[in-house]
Amino acid sequence: MRLLKRRIVIPATVVGILSLVMLVGFQLVSMRTHAANVDPCDAGETLQCLKTIDDDRTPVDDVGQVSASQDNAQGNPRLGKNVFVNDPCLDPAPPANYNSLPTTDPASRAARRATVQSETSIGVLYAGGSQKMVVGYNDSFGFYDNRQGLSGYAYTVDGGAHWIDGGGLPPLVPNGAPLGTPGADRYAGDPVIVVHQKSGTFYFASIYLDTAGRQTLSVNSGSFQTAPASALESNSNTRCLNNPALSGTPDTATLPSERIVWNIGVSAVNNLGPGDALDKEWLFVSQKTGELYLSYTRFNANGSTPLELVRSKDGGHTWTAPTTIVPNLNDTFNQATQPIVLPNGRVVVSWIARTFSAGGAGPESDNRIEEAYSDNDGVTFSAPVVVAHVNPQGEPPGYNRGRRSILNAPFISYTGEGLQDDGNNNAQGDSGNGPTIYLTYFNGKTPLVNPDGSINTGPLSKSADIMLSRSTNRGLTWQAPVKVNDDAGVTSHVFPSVQAGADGKVYVAWLDRRNDSANELTNEWADVSLNNGASFSVDKVQSDVATSWRARADARPNFGDYNSSALLGNGQLALVWADGRFTPVAGTPATPDTIFTVATGLGQNQQQ
Question: For position 6, what pLDDT does the model report?
Answer without folding.
Answer: 33
